[in-house]
């Protein structure tokens, strides 16, 4: 179940997002019709070749079909690259009406830099394959932030293949206030996957496990490691603990958080792309918009809580 959302989102969806989704839905139906036509053309040429057996004629007939299929491929790619930016920008327009956020900007083909990703100290392995998209920037209170989808992989030390290091949404925010101390928060049930990251963090930063957390459910769900100079109350307030638990409970997604001096890094693992359009089924869904909106709002609330503690 997703967290409660105000009726404003439903009204905005009905009046602004839904009409755009319906326009894109009509385009999707047109593309499906074109795909059906191309399939029938190819099938017809195959039967013609079997019937007359003259390869040259079949080859001549295939030329316009190949050109048609090339055009169709271009239209499919255009549909994909128009749909997502349009819908994401509409959701961001709704979010930045809140005075807590500055104007949010979106770039489809940009992403957070690898250097920033590894500075989080959440992931020790250096990915040999780093791909990102859907880059969003803005300001939450006094903190500037950036986030994007990332897919980071490394070469397996045992098998000749790439293993996932991280796939999901990654956020980075920086406080204008000088803060010292470091802390990382990782899902407890995934501890075996982060032994290298924990080892690096402990050795390089003289960090140790932090066990003085009163919230029993939080201790059961997350591991916390911090440096001796970390201000735990600033980094991990009781409200922050409740917020992280709420996000995990409502979405079921694994969350990783680190506070490295004046920087906060949040990595949320998920296997599906943000609002990626599907050709074979309808994309008109309030639930998809609501999920994307809820994820963004929850991430921003975590950053805002950190900002209010400073």
Walk me through this protein's architecture.
It is built from eight helices and nine strands. It has about 300 residues and is an alpha+beta fold. The chain folds into two domains: about 5-95; about 105-310, no CATH class. Strands 1-2-3-4-9-8-5-7-6 form a nine-stranded antiparallel β-sheet.
Q: Provide mean pLDDT, rounded.
A: 84
Helix content: 40-55%
The termini sit apart by 32 Å
Tell me how many strands there are.
Answer: 9
- How many domains, in number, for the residues? 2
Secondary-structure element order, as H and E? HHEHEEEEHEHEHHEEH
- Count the helices. How many? 8
Strand content: 15-25%
Flag low-confidence runs.
none
Specify Rg, calculated over alpha carbons: 24 Å
Helix and strand content put the structural class at alpha+beta
The geometry reads as elongated
Main β-sheet description? 9 strands, antiparallel
Strand order, largest beta sheet: 1-2-3-4-9-8-5-7-6
């Amino acid at each position: 179940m997703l967290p409660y959302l105000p009726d404003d989102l439903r009204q905005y969806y009905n009046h602004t997002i839904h009409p755009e989704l319906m326009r894109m839905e009509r385009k999707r139906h047109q593309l499906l019709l074109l795909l059906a036509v191309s399939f029938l053309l190819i099938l017809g040429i195959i039967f013609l070749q079997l019937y007359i057996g003259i390869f040259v004629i079949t080859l001549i007939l295939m030329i316009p079909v190949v050109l048609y299929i090339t055009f169709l491929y271009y239209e499919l790619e255009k549909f994909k690259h128009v749909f997502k930016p349009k819908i994401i920008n509409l959701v961001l327009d709704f979010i930045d009406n809140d005075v807590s956020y500055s104007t949010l900007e979106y770039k489809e083909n940009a992403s957070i830099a690898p250097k920033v990703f590894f500075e989080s100290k959440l992931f020790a392995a250096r990915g040999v394959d780093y791909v990102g998209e859907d880059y969003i920037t803005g300001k939450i209170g006094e903190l500037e932030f950036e986030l994007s989808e990332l897919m980071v992989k490394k070469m397996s030390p045992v098998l000749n293949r790439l293993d996932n290091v991280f796939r999901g949404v990654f956020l980075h925010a920086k406080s204008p206030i000088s803060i010292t101390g470091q802390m990382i928060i990782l899902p407890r049930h995934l501890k075996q996957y982060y032994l290298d990251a924990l080892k690096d963090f402990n050795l390089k930063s003289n960090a140790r496990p932090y066990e003085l957390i009163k919230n029993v459910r939080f201790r059961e769900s997350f591991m916390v490691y911090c440096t001796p100079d970390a201000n735990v109350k600033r980094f991990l307030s009781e409200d922050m603990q409740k917020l992280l638990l709420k996000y995990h409970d409502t979405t079921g997604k694994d969350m990783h958080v680190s506070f490295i001096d004046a920087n906060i890094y949040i990595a949320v693992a998920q296997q599906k792309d943000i609002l990626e359009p599907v050709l074979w089924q309808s994309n008109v869904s309030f639930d998809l918009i609501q999920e994307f909106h809820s994820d963004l709002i929850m991430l921003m609330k975590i950053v805002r809580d950190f900002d209010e503690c400073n």
